[in-house]
Amino acid sequence: MARKSAKNRSAKGTGTAGAGPKPLGPTALVETLVGGWRPLSRLDVGGFAILRSRGITRRANSIVPVDPPTEPQALENSLDRVLGLAGASDDPVLVRLYPDSGHAAVDQALAERGFSVEAPCDVLELPLGAKTPAPDPRATISIGPLPDDWFAASWRLSPRSGEGARETMRDILAGTPAVHVGIPAEGTADGEGRAEPTAVGRAALVDHGRTRSAVLNQIATDPEHRREGLATAVVRTLAAASQVQEAERALLEVESDNPAALALYRKLGFRRLGGYHYRVRS
């Protein structure tokens, strides 16, 4: 889609003041978050999804219970099969678990197998509707496929390590249509006098049934321009543009040991919906 300046967009609400979206069920929430950071390959086995993306990022290289067996022996049999398949590659065996979404039995089974806990994250939700803030007038917004210039700015602000990481990140981010936002700081420009983004963010537009959610990620700010309100401007613009695209909610995954980010998102109206952590073979 064509790129537009935020100040030229007309934001019309799709929600009703005071009315939140219909809650996502446990499976819908898990599938929505997987869709927001879509892996390059997925193999569904015994109620689990094995996600692989050349080893780049935990989210895209983990095992996720989607509809795991509830009977104890059937669960053990599924785990034997899934862990055996995942262990056949050189990638670490990571299992992403949402205890609030019906994964408590899987969590316990993995603990008994000696898997340790790593990287707990909070899942936050912001209902989108009539009270969604307006976009920042400085923002450049692109909706749809991954723009090359936005990706270049995103990589500059938030690179990843690992062989082939840039190509893999491009492929992951291109996997889902999204809202892409870039905001310049005052007085910044490239060699041709154009303002370069000093903060960026992405909202993957994920449909599950008749529900559309915006999964916010890849939010990054130039370290030299932190504490200037740029992250707040990016998140508000992502929310506004996603609401125009008929998303009912914005979702965020934030590491639980990042109190500054959690405080920022709470101030913007996000509330904790649940959480997840990884179980890693010790």
TrEMBL record:
Does the record carry Transmembrane as a key word?
no
Q: Where is the N-acetyltransferase domain?
A: 141-282
UniProt KW Transferase keyword: yes
Where in the sequence does UniProt note compositional bias of the Basic residues kind? 1-10
What keywords is this UniProt entry annotated with?
Acyltransferase, Transferase
Region Disordered, as annotated, extends over: 1-25
For bias type Low complexity, the affected ranges are 11-25
Name listed for the protein in its UniProt record: GNAT family N-acetyltransferase
Q: Which organism is it from?
A: Brachybacterium kimchii
